[in-house]
Amino acid sequence: MFHSQPTPGSHDPGRISPPNQALDALLIRLGTTIRDLCQRQVDKHRSLDNLDLPSIVDHLLRDHGAETDFDQQLIACINAMCQNDAMGQTLAFLRNDGKLHMRHINTLDLLGPGLDRYEMVLFDGGNSHGDRWKHVFFPAQRMHYFVYEDL
User: In this structure, how many other beta carbons lie within 10 angstroms of the beta carbon of residue 80?
Assistant: First the structure.
């Protein structure tokens, strides 16, 4: 099985943790690009119809290592949910006919192919010692967010 797991106490919801500093820089760069596009401060001779924003975002995410962080955190959550003292559930959200549907899934099913079919995956985790946390993943965007519930 896997040996890494989320470190609940090391995440402060109001601050960017060190692994996400590259993501912060990426988002600032992306925001600047979008602002420039909105203000039309790009080459006026180039049609915006030819601008492939999804490819630009994918390229920026790869350049800044966001995919590696996504994969590491996903594996850490799967590992945490498979521990002997783990409590909680794994929920997957799929969009069908314009509606978002939620269903419980077996956590280990996320190791196989097909993660991208989910719009969102939510780990509602904890353990018998009282730790509680949530980690939400957005596979298409390769983004995630962790919340530790300090009760």
Answer: 24
